[in-house]
Structure formats: structure tokens, C-alpha cells
Amino acid sequence: MGVAIFLRKLKFKLIFVGVGIFLLLVSIPAVALAFSYSAIRWWSTTTYVRYDSSVPDSWQSSGALYNARRAWNNAGSKFRIYYSSSSENVVKAGYYGKTDWIAKASINYNLLGYINQAEIIFNRSYPWSTTGASDYYDVQNIATHEFGHWLQLNDLYSSTDYYKTMYGHAKTGETYKRTLHSDDIAGIKYIYGE
Amino acid sequence: MKNRIAILALVGVVVIIAGLLYWRTLIKPRKQVVNGILVEMDIPTLSKKADTILIGTVKSKLPSAKDNSKKRLSKVYTDVIVVPEKYLKNPQDSPELKVRLAGGKTDDAWVWVEDEASLERGEHVLLFLSKDAEARDVWTVTGLCQGKFNISGSKVKQQFSDEEIELNRLEQQIQKVQD
């Protein structure tokens, strides 16, 4: 008899604990994922980039592109983007007209969701600067955002995401995307580990 | 002896299948995602930039195709047919408009463009449209996802936005820019 009561109590306890664990698992992602991740990723935690001849020299000599990579390299995750003149992953610039997009990142990936090759293209039909000048788009600001796409963090559009690097719109003179928001950092750590 | 040959043949078949799978899944790029960063546009800016503004319904989606124009966000595009009910700027004569969206799926490529407007059959929408820079009688959504609003009763919501506003209020904002 005593054993039967014990088992019944144990059953209730197990149900209670099970429901508790379920609620915890459901609530954790909602709290933690203040970034958007596409579920595509690089196979390795190191990738390489080269700069095409179409990229103005001043964008490299000013350190704008280097600093954009460094922001992600120093975010505390295992992921690194290094320069290599022989890399298939390339940053380009060109004149594409006032097509409403300032820059774009194109990522080729396979059926398993691993990235084969990536590219960033800056649209020079819009005005660019490396100094954060008020009537120009800032190269480092936009490059930091685009390298975030290489990691496969998606754009964010909510007004609450405005000051994150991965916010999907940009204005001239804007430089706050140069510095990663804690949620951007949480994103790269989530994908590639600490 | 026969067993050994059978085992070798089996190993050979497995190696060939594994090789094909490896090539198809790990080596050959088949899919592409394009993430743009967009010029931020508010309603007055969208209203000024758009060549026409309408309220209408998405009638159909045509098969995706390829285009090598550099101005597009991707080499694959998809056309949709929109039937206008009401124009808020620059009415057009045609009973239907063809709207070109970046991205889509062809036999050998699948491209998803994150920032493009998404238009699905049957959707009731308010669209800011620009004339396509490359093709005649083709339109694109102004500001990409920023130029598409879903209509639900008397409310509208911009794609990706978490804020709903009154359709009347949006129409007034658009009208104000034109006055």
C-alpha cells in the first residue's frame, strides 16, 4: 500500500518536473535570441577575405574594412575573418544606380547549410566616406553590418533593434553600427561558440 | 572468393554513392542568400520616390527566371501580377501591373533575398512602386520591403514592422506629400 502511494506521488513529481523543464526550454530561446540567425553557417570557425581592385585604396588604408572585421574577431566567439589575397570570398565595389540598396552580402551555401563562398558588394552610386561625414555612408559602419551577414546573422527591423549592428536600414553619417551591440555579440557566440 | 568480390563490389558502390552525395551536398553551390542594407525611407520619402502608389490584390505569381542585370539584388527574379483597386498616386491605364521581385527558384538555383518585398497570391496590399530601370512595363517595390504594406480591415502594417497603423492615416500622409 505504502509503495503504491509512493509511486503515485513520484508520478505527480515527474509530471511537475517535466512540465517545468518544458516551460523552461520554451522560454529560454525567446529571452536569449534577440538576434536573427538563418541557420546557415561556415563549416570552420575561420574564414578568409580579399579585397577586389574595385575597392578604393582609401577604404583599406584608413583601416575601415580591417576594423569592421576586427569588431567581429574581438567579439569573444571562436569565429575569425582574416585577410588572404587568394581567398574566394571577396569584397567588391561598383556603380549599380540608386537602387535603394547601399550594399549587399551574397552567400552561396550547400544543401547541408554550410557556406561555400561569400561576397560583399558596395554600391558606389551612393556617397561613401571613411570618416563618418554627415552626408555620406560610412564604410566601416556598413562593412561591420555586412560581415555580420557573412556570419549569417539576419537583418533586424524592429524599432527596438535600432542601435544594433544588424539593424537592416542605414542613414548617411551613421556610425553606431561600427560597435557591436550585446545582442550582436550574443548572436555570433550562439552560432560559433565562445 | 565470391564473398570477397561481393564485399569489394559493395564497398565500391558505397564509395561511389558517398562521393556523389559529397559532391552534390558539400561541393556544388546550389543555394544563395542575399542580404542587403537599405536606404532608410519614411512615408514621405517613399511617397516622393514612388512612380505610382496603389491599393490592390496579388493575383498570381509567375515562374522565376534569370537575369544578369547588375542592378538587381540577385540574378534570379520572380514576377507577380497585381490587380489595382485604387491609386493613391499616378494612376495607370493597365488593369494589371507586373511587379518584379529579386529572388526565386529556377531549375538550378535557389535565391532568397532577405530584404525584398514578399508578395503572395491573394494578399491585399498597399504598394509603393517604381518603374523598373531595365524592363518596360515592369515595376519594382520602392525601398524593397519598406514599400509594401499588408492591409487587414482598416489597418495596415509594413512588412517586417511590428507597428500597425490606420489605413486612412497612411493615405492622408501619402496625399499630404503630393499636395
What does this structure look like?
The complex is a heterodimer of chains A (194) and B (179). Chain A has 2 domains: 1-32; 46-192, Collagenase (Catalytic Domain), CATH 3.40.390. Chain A is 36% helix and 20% strand. Chain A is built from 5 helices and 8 strands; from the N terminus they run αβααββββββαβα. In chain A, the strands form 2 sheets. Chain A has a 5-stranded mixed sheet. In chain A, strand 4 (101-109) and strand 5 form a beta hairpin. In chain A, helix 3 (64-73) packs across helix 4 (139-150). Residues 28-32 of chain A have low confidence and may be disordered. The longest helix of chain B has 26 residues, at 2-27. Chain B folds into 2 domains: 2-29; 34-178, OB fold (Dihydrolipoamide Acetyltransferase, E2P) (Beta Barrel), CATH 2.40.50.120. Chain B has 3 helices and 12 strands; from the N terminus they run αβαβββββββββββα. In chain B, helix 2 (43-49) packs across helix 3. Chain A binds chain B through residues 38, 40, 94, 96-97, 99-112, 114, 116-117, 126, 142, 145-146, 149, 152, 154-155, 157-159, 168-171, and chain B through 24-41, 70-74, 114-115, 133, 142-146, 160-163. Strand 4 (101-109) of chain A pairs antiparallel with strand 1 of chain B, so a sheet runs across the interface.
